[in-house]
């Protein structure tokens, strides 16, 4: 070879290798500030965050016990307790949730267990047994009482009776199922909501001692009626009393049968007597979010195929009708992917806002991936990463998540932030799935904003206005139950719950339920006319009614396709390319695009 030829060989080698070299270089991203910011999170920093999230919980919890117990909530500015608003029965913002049952303590039980605080867990369980009673005539929302109180009581009960005690010694000497009995007592007081409804969809509210109030509104939101199956199903199985399972399933079946025969979508508010959709808006936010979540979680918990079929169909419908923006999260050009609110009958976009509760959708997507799909790194993962990244960008803009954010105006429509957990919940699930340090940074950003802007004399406050950071004197019980729990679990990577992640499921209120094959079996006999060890006569009547409607020919046929619109072959199954796996979960150019989209930075292009 001549010298020239040698040069030519080397030169052509460089030409061949050049794309590879570029590709390797792009792995380093040394010049990319976004990549540099997120690429590492040291163990020492992580341990600091474990400590900080524990301190956050303890500050709220200790002060609740000191200043508020046995009332329901702590007022973190005035350092006093808060119970139902007896002066103004119409104040549903308070009265739907607070029932004079030491709500914050009840909701904190399983967080104490997750944090391994055995002595405090035992003390708190004893306080609940001693103080909590449902024998009052407060009118509460069926949904809130179920997910907050029944869910928390069942979770703590299951933790106490678990023979393996994986979270540390959480056993209670002399325990006689008192928490289960409390859950049973409350659930039986909620049952009247399921009577005298033409559709089987429950009334939204009951008085704990007098049943459904006279002149109770005949309208309920979809998630209020359709997010009871996990708690009621577990309760039924533990009690060997099918009534709770039956009434909650009847509500879901009825809602499902009323979905649009054009789009397959459900609205967000329905008349429980006529089955008419009073609120025809469909979306993934308030009023409907947890309906889909519970179809999936019910399948995981109880293994009933029809739940998965309903979820699968919903999932496709949601992607088809609600999703906007470029087809792939991490590929190609176009707007930021977004799930919008649409008219359930036409699929047309009805407004330009997204709400804070919707931030939990990434967690649902992740759960779908972990339990249902074989492949972890598939298109659903991409979707989850992208939905989450949008909410994170909004968080960084306001150091909080406004209740409603208008993506067209790039401004909040509703400005409060009540310390909701949904973004941190999704952050936690995505970290479990990717182990990407990006999510530890997100968690730290969230924790630091909460400490910087909401911490007051004796607790953490609702932000009244994300612009001004004006506060409200209220700390909702889900702050200790969910927000602190998910933050702690995000950073405490060696936690028993993380080591056995697939053995647990979190309720929509963040309460931990162990998965157990025994819940796949129904302890009661299934045949029509069976004699069950039911409680009261009214219950067994209710049960018969529920069963009839579930089995009757007019009720839902889960296998029958009712949707008549044409589906595209919207594909979501592409695998994630290597660059993504080892670098940012979402390409930095798309993160930058999100920052522009929410007004965090100007548009430089
Ligand atoms: C358990 O919780 C109590 C109350 O917050 C706290 O004082 C104590 O330090 C905690 N113990 C551990 C080991 O975290
Ligand atoms: C029901 O509540 C009212 C106030 O709203 C109270 O006066 C009454 O004593 C309560 N009745 C029972 C049985 O608790
Ligand atoms: C609710 O529906 C029932 C039965 O159709 C009716 O008797 C009652 O008046 C309705 N209540 C209200 C508040 O509209
Ligand atoms: C959808 O249901 C409505 C009644 O709810 C009926 O009038 C209409 O014909 C149905 N459309 C199709 C395409 O089946
Ligand atoms: C639901 O969808 C998953 C894939 O996402 C599939 O593996 C499963 O077989 C489907 N199950 C049912 C019951 O439709
Ligand atoms: C699937 O989509 C591609 C374009 O994305 C299109 O070319 C193809 O014809 C579609 N296939 C079917 C069966 O609709």
Automatic annotation (TrEMBL):
Establish whether keyword Endoplasmic reticulum is in the entry: yes
- Residues the record marks as active site: 144 (proton donor), 289, 403 (proton donor), 422
List all membrane-crossing ranges: 7-27
Names of required cofactors: Ca(2+)
What membrane topology term does the record carry? Single-pass type II membrane protein
Swiss-Prot/TrEMBL keywords: Calcium, Endoplasmic reticulum, Glycoprotein, Glycosidase, Hydrolase, Membrane, Metal-binding, Signal-anchor, Transmembrane, Transmembrane helix
| A Pfam family assignment | Glyco_hydro_47
Q: What is the enzyme's main class?
A: hydrolase
- GO BP, sorted A to Z: carbohydrate metabolic process; endoplasmic reticulum mannose trimming
Q: Provide a GO CC annotation, any one.
A: endoplasmic reticulum membrane
- Give binding positions for Ca(2+): 508
Mainly localized where? Answer: endoplasmic reticulum
Give its E.C. classification number: 3.2.1.-
Q: Where in the cell is it found?
A: Endoplasmic reticulum membrane
GO molecular-function annotation terms?
A: calcium ion binding; mannosyl-oligosaccharide 1,2-alpha-mannosidase activity
The family database entries (InterPro entries) matched by this protein are listed as: 6hp_glycosidase-like_sf, EDEM1/2/3, Glyco_hydro_47, Seven-hairpin_glycosidases
Task: List, alphabetically, the PANTHER family matched.
Answer: ER DEGRADATION-ENHANCING ALPHA-MANNOSIDASE-LIKE PROTEIN 1 (PTHR45679:SF5), ER DEGRADATION-ENHANCING ALPHA-MANNOSIDASE-LIKE PROTEIN 2 (PTHR45679)
Q: What does this protein do?
A: Extracts misfolded glycoproteins, but not glycoproteins undergoing productive folding, from the calnexin cycle. It is directly involved in endoplasmic reticulum-associated degradation (ERAD) and targets misfolded glycoproteins for degradation in an N-glycan-independent manner, probably by forming a complex with SEL1L. It has low mannosidase activity, catalyzing mannose trimming from Man8GlcNAc2 to Man7GlcNAc2.
Which family does the record claim for this protein? Belongs to the glycosyl hydrolase 47 family.
Tell me what this protein is called: alpha-1,2-Mannosidase
Q: Which organism is it from?
A: Lymnaea stagnalis (Great pond snail)
Taxonomic placement: Eukaryota, Metazoa, Spiralia, Lophotrochozoa, Mollusca
